[in-house]
Amino acid sequence: MIAVRSFFYGAALILVGAVPVFCSLGSVISSFRIADNYHTYAYGVARDGTYVYYVTVEMSPAYRLYYRYPGGGGGGMIFIGKFPAGHGDADTSVLGTGYFADIYEVGSVQTITDFDIRTGSAVASWAPFEGNMRGYAYSPALRRKYVARDYRIYRYDTSGNLLSSFGFGRNINGLAVTEEFCGYNGEYIIASYGTDSYVLNAQGVQIGSFSYPRGVITACACGPGYPSEYGTTFWCIVDTYMQAVYLSQVSLHNATAVTPASVGRIKALFR
Fold first, then answer.
1. pTM
2. pLDDT single digits (tens) 83-122
3. Buried-most residue among 44, 57, 71, 251 (CB within 10 A)?
4. In this structure, are residues 158 and 145 in contact, taking their beta carbons and an 8 Å threshold?
5. Which residue has the higher pLDDT, 72 or 187?
6. Among the listed residues 77, 51, 73, the one whose alpha carbon sits nearest the alpha carbon of residue 65
7. Three-state DSSP state, 267
């Protein structure tokens, strides 16, 4: 297990009114191994109010969707397709609780596909592009969907109508969105590329960044923190250079005030 310690770096928070202009992300809150990167490989991740979800494929050509409690235990597994179909970056589904959505590729055609987590069956799909989609994110609170393709990020409403897009300048590995960052409400998009992740506002202006020095972030999502005092946190799959794959939770500096009995559980934020 990766040690829980602070190793993200960024500029100090500067405030203009009630909007964060630049804020770094915080410590790794938790991390557990989900694949060995030899017999098993990991793909998209999503987080809802109950579980954290992630997709793996093993030497047998079948994809598995795991749902586990955010502390790393419990939950279960279902099958959601066979190789050579492929799964990519994921998030919660516009269909709500009980569904999981990711970039699903069959042949050379990609769709954003919604799966029933009880059966593993595909129940709906959406195709803003046929190919080259590298990131997907969805915010139930903002009711916005986001797709990264080539070097651009596209914003949509829940019906799939394009609202805007902006260039990013890097080929994205994963995409996440949060309505809460550094204790402020708004629309914040997190784009990951290699070991680096960038926090952007809805216009594509960078307001934060961080680096993961021990591995590459290959998929990401935002969701409820664990413990809940962390507020919204950043959940990511980290490939540690062919050694193993971890599911990590990173602070977005949204922790609430705590009682003395809770201080020990979240003291890593303040180191």
1. 0.86
2. 778 999 999 999 999 999 999 999 889 999 999 999 999 9
3. 44
4. yes
5. 187
6. 77
7. helix
